[in-house]
Design a protein that fits this description.
Structural class: alpha/beta
Number of strands: 5
CATH superfamily: Glutaredoxin
Helix content: 25-40%
Strand content: 15-25%
Largest sheet: 5 strands, mixed
Number of helices: 5
Distance between the termini: 22 Å
CATH class: Alpha Beta
Amino acid sequence: VDNDQRDLDMNSKDVDAEKITRFIRMNELRLVTEYNPVTSIGVMQSSLQLHLLLITDKMSPKHPERMRRYRAAAELFKEKILFILVDSNLKSNEQTVSFFKLKKSQLPALAIFHTPDEEWDVLTLDEVSVDRVQDFCNHFLQ
């Protein structure tokens, strides 16, 4: 997604299937990357300095439609913003949710984060739409 290449030293004697799988998982970044302990390394190493997080409940019946719209918005900002999904139900993501000063009652929400200066903004939403995501991103970029 950010045209950055990472290489695994295949000449090392300790390379096995597990290490190759871990390397791929850490370094694969999709149009929307789900945030978890494995992908967090790839997210943090991305050369893209703007991260847009959709913090939502993956178990919600509205989740598939939210993701469809979120992916559509991600297409508009390819190579500019890294789109990330944060499942609010995972205990490992509680710290991320609290970093943006959000409570479960305020979700779903969008949080945009600029990594070099740690500047961020949050938008709570009832509905994820391409227009709202696009407006939020454009406002922050300005």
